[in-house]
Amino acid sequence: MTSPLLPTYARADVIFEKGEGVWLVARDGQRYLDLGSGIGVNALGYSHPALLAALAEQGGKLWHISNLFQNPQAERLAGRLVDASFADTVFFTNSGAEALECAIKTARKYHSADGHPERYRIITFEGAFHGRTLATIAAGGQQKYLEGFGPKVDGFDQVPFGDWQALAAAIGPQTGGILIEPVQGEGGIRPVPPADLRRLRQIADDNGLLLIFDEVQCGVGRTGKLFAHEWSGIAPDIMAIAKGIGGGFPLGASLATREASKGMTLGTHGTTFGGNPLATAVGNAVLDVILAPGFLESVQEKAGLFRQRLAELKDRYPDVIADVRGEGLMLGLKLKVPNTDFVRKALAHRLVVIAAGDNVVRLLPPLIISEAEIAEAVAGLGAVAETFVTHADAENADERHAG
Ligand SMILES: *Cc1c(COP(=O)(O)O)cnc(C)c1O
After folding, report:
1. Cα(202)–Cα(218) distance, rounded to whole angstroms?
2. What pLDDT shows up at residue 396?
């Protein structure tokens, strides 16, 4: 069966028809425990009553009005993001990559407005992922994403993760900013230690650089704080968010301080769909839940439990799981067996997990996952790990036979 969809994805052979909480229900009626959240998007799981209500209410009134008119839903969501963060101003987008594009443009325009248009270069880090537009593949620097798409967009200088000498050497008269994910997602769930984020803030300040965080995956409650960088005590000048903020509705945003956004004046940037009333009504409903007293604390508690149980799993299956890492409910299992095999076998066990770089399996469950569901998840992951042990023993046995 050939699909009319452009074949840029290898889709698993399963059709999900609906979802309830952390569970996905396939067409054949089988229930799958979702530890992927559509890559960190469905932060409140499926069919959350608050999101359904917001969608139905706004859906019955007005979906889209363009950015040529007042938009109270967007004003309210922006105001709440500003109140809850370092930022003074917000630009809404439909995706993470667009939020990054706005962040990058904001940084370049800041230096231009400051009389230094030559300071357009931004330092990024190996293993980073910032999206799939021409600028964001250049920022991410991964050869496999750049290959064949013509000249790489200029203005990005990549240094190895954690190499301070390389970072210092990369800062020149044209450098305008540093862009980093506080927790690398696609790169393999690699948190930047809080002390390193503080050091980056210092380096940025010392060199007149803007510090830009990509919290598209790690933001919006994922780590147990509204934004992952809060664990470090410092703040960026500009930050891109997306994935979780729409709870499954396409929505992203670029947040900035008044100073950092000073170049972004009337007419300098735009979007047709970004922040439309339907998207921002849903975004407000997501924040209603995530900012409710006790919610983020509950994420932290459940994350602690999950991590502890995963560490036990690692001890039980040392030949399968090399390491457990991450922050909050953004967890990674660094494997000693191929992560893609693990993902495939997990699906056969009706468990949805996602592969990441560095041979990691990503666990990004909906933030509403319960302790009982975490226990089910760990049991399921254990069963998947077990299949590798049995398999390896069988192979050894085969080899002994053959020998
Ligand atoms: C997913 C992701 C992006 C890109 O978001 P899209 O919505 O796919 O454009 C950018 N940065 C990070 C850290 C991401 O995880």
Report:
1. 22
2. 52
